[in-house]
């Protein structure tokens, strides 16, 4: 049985959008660090935004 398809929409509330961004950014950096440790390589993460 497959998963349901969810519609992707921008977060309209600016505060919620910033909170979500900070949480996702932290998770991304954690995953990049884990990959760097496991593979013994240097990792660069580039995040571009309007601010």
TrEMBL record:
<keyword id="KW-0238">DNA-binding</keyword>
<dbReference type="GO" id="GO:0005634">
    <property type="term" value="C:nucleus"/>
</dbReference>
<keyword id="KW-0804">Transcription</keyword>
<dbReference type="GO" id="GO:0046983">
    <property type="term" value="F:protein dimerization activity"/>
</dbReference>
<dbReference type="InterPro" id="IPR002100">
    <property type="entry name" value="TF_MADSbox"/>
</dbReference>
<dbReference type="GO" id="GO:0000981">
    <property type="term" value="F:DNA-binding transcription factor activity, RNA polymerase II-specific"/>
</dbReference>
<feature type="domain" description="MADS-box">
    <location>
        <begin position="1"/>
        <end position="51"/>
    </location>
</feature>
<dbReference type="Pfam" id="PF00319">
    <property type="entry name" value="SRF-TF"/>
</dbReference>
<dbReference type="GO" id="GO:0045944">
    <property type="term" value="P:positive regulation of transcription by RNA polymerase II"/>
</dbReference>
<keyword id="KW-0805">Transcription regulation</keyword>
<keyword id="KW-0539">Nucleus</keyword>
<protein>
    <submittedName>
        <fullName>SRF-like protein</fullName>
    </submittedName>
</protein>
<dbReference type="InterPro" id="IPR036879">
    <property type="entry name" value="TF_MADSbox_sf"/>
</dbReference>
<dbReference type="GO" id="GO:0000978">
    <property type="term" value="F:RNA polymerase II cis-regulatory region sequence-specific DNA binding"/>
</dbReference>
């Amino acid at each position: 049985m497959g998963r349901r398809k969810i519609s992707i929409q921008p977060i309209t509330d600016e505060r919620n959008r910033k909170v979500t961004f900070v949480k996702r950014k932290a998770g991304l950096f954690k995953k990049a660090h884990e990959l760097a440790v496991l593979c013994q390589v240097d990792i660069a993460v580039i995040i571009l935004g309007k601010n």
